[in-house]
Amino acid sequence: MKHQAATQTAADPVSDSSSAKSRSSGFSFKRSSRLLDGAAYGQVFKRNYRVTSQYWIVLGHRTRDNNSRLGLAIAKKRAKRAVDRNKLKRVARESFRHQRKALTGLDIVVMNKDPAKNAPTVQLRESLDKLWAELLGKIRVR
Fold it and tell me: pLDDT of the chain along its 142 residues, tens only?
């Protein structure tokens, strides 16, 4: 009996198709889309365009590369619980993945503000989506 149940779950077509769909959606967050070291973060912190909202601070830095990269600086001081920090990171990554083509040629660092830890996910996402547009407007003007 146990063997049959395990076989049925492994061959479950629903789980197989959903994982294949998520991998081929084009919204993956690959290593090449991340700021990986202190030097990369340092460039963004040193020379940047800054936009803010109630929940986020976003720093953008132009690069010569056509790739857009995201760095997350989610402060433990601002969101003490790991579950809150993970939620903020998840929202920021998801929003970035959906806006990545518009953000070409930018290195970006996203930081959280105090109210972000208690905000609903929808408000966090909407706020960040508005900040992407604001950042692009600021960079294109200069």
Answer: 444 444 444 444 444 444 444 444 566 778 888 999 999 999 999 999 999 999 999 999 999 988 999 999 999 999 999 999 999 999 999 999 999 999 999 999 999 999 999 999 999 999 999 999 999 999 876 6
**Tokens encoding 79:** 């969101």
Antiparallel, parallel or unpaired: β 56-62 and 106-112: antiparallel
Write the DSSP assignment of 14-48 as a string of letters: HHHHHHHHHHTSS----GGGB--SHHHHHHHHHS-
Tokens of 17: 């198709």
What is the rounded CA–CA span in Å between residue 92 and residue 88? 6
Q: Can you give the length of the chain in residues? A: 142
State the pTM of this model.
0.79
Pick the CATH number of 29-141 from 3.30.230.10, 2.10.260.10, 1.10.10.10, 3.20.20.70: 3.30.230.10
Distance CA 22, CA 88 (A): 21
